[in-house]
Amino acid sequence: MKSMGINIAAVLSLAASFLFRGILVSKAHYLMAAVLGNDLQKAVRTAVSDVYKESFFKSVSRQIRRSRKPVTILFTDVEDSTAYWDEYGDLDGRLMIDLHNRLISPVIKRYRGKIVKHIGDSIMASFKSPRNALKASIAIQQILEKRRNEDVAFILRVRIGVHAGKALVEGGDIFGDAVNLAARVQGLAKGNEIYVSSSTASRFKNENFALTKVGNFLLKGKQTKIEIYKCGWRHYPDLIAGIEQNVFVQVVRRQKREFLIYSCASIGIIYFLFLNYLRYFLADKEVLALLSLRLQLILDARIAIPAGLGILTLVAVFLAIRTKTIPHLALSLLKGGFGLAIGFLLFYGPAHYLHYLLGPDWNKTLHQSDHLFVEVLEEKVNLHRAPSEAAAGIFKVPKGTILLLADVAKKRKMTWNKVLVGRGEYGWIPRIVPAKIGVPKRRLSIANKFYFTYLDLGALVAGLAGFFWGVLSFRVRPI
Prior knowledge:
The structure is a single chain. By secondary structure, the chain is an alpha+beta fold. The chain folds into four domains: about 1-65; about 70-245, 2-Layer Sandwich (Alpha-Beta Plaits), CATH 3.30.70; about 250-365 and about 455-475, no CATH class; about 370-450, SH3 type barrels (Roll). It contains 13 helices and 21 strands. It has helices spanning about 1-20, 25-35, 40-65, 80-110, 130-150, 175-190, 200, 255-285, 285-300, 305-320, 330-355, 355-360, 455-475, and strands at about 70-80, 115-120, 120-125, 160-170, 175, 195, 210-215, 225-230, 250, 325, 365-370, 375, 380-385, 395, 400-410, 415-420, 425-430, 430-435, 440-445, 445-450, 450-455. The strands form six sheets. Strands 1, 2, 3, 4, 5, 6, 7 and 8 form an eight-stranded mixed sheet that branches. A five-stranded antiparallel sheet has the order 17-16-15-12-20. A hairpin with an 8-residue loop joins strand 13 (about 380-385) and strand 14.
């Protein structure tokens, strides 16, 4: 009867969920109590709770089973690191760990491994291929020995354990017996040694990894002994050729985000400075005016601007994802570009819109152009060979293009600007198209000079201050 009562309660609960849907929980409980009675309401709530818990744990169990995958785990551990920290102190101890990570990390990545976590002076890495894991272990010992031969003060020795099996791969972490076994295997080794479990060693029967049996060991937490093999890595060919050390900054996830932000900010501020300042300085010199015009025709096009910036951003994202090392100077300069953008815009933005509060001195002209410029105000305006709408067209120019003014002419109530478009070649562009029946008057271009004010100078000084701050404040983070 109890079982039947629970089942009935579950059915009633399901029905109640439809009846009381959209009602506050407290009101729903009140209505259920009124309809079903207090005892039956408790039975309903208990049944729903049990069903929910069972469904919840089934879902979690199913997800855990799906995350179980074959993987090879590699553990490294620095021999006598505790004594090193005790003798040399925290600073030298941390520098030793940082050097250990910088030497080993590129090797793991070279052989398609992934660093799962740093555990004090140890590294836990995973590989899809047991062969790559063992080759990475050999390369780690080789690169450490090479460093010891080059620097007598370098005494770091590492023990390595490798085990292949199935583990739970969840997000950026790995759990399971395979991880525990790899850690136990590594714990048996000594400095400069690579130990491999028997199940892993059996996969290399046809390859010359110089594996020799060490013995049978009862590892902590295990009920049966496990065969352990030692890799004679000194007999293996060189695996570290081409791996650069201590030349580049190894990029961690946070530094990749910074690299992307710095790149986008640098690209943006360079383009902004070109549009608002540099192109006017270039166009003011007749020798450079044509070069400036060609750059504008490429950069100012409404399709080219977003497309170009989009491509550069995609390239920056791709490099941020794929790049494993970045030159220190490149990162510091990119942070300088970020500082330039921040410093310039923090000054220029408020000052540009609130210049009347700063006083007349800030608006005084510090430099003005030698020539007048014609700025195109509409998209795809046609340049004519003569000051007439019937004249042949030269090419169309996009909105925002600036051209060097050579002369002005009036033809049939229209004012035309004569502009330089090529070496010894000129074109004509109307200033205003008169109104016609049903068509309002349109301004196609405007002629003016370029003025560089104290306000602009202040923004550039603030930008340069931000640039030097960015370059000088960049620090290589320990890994």
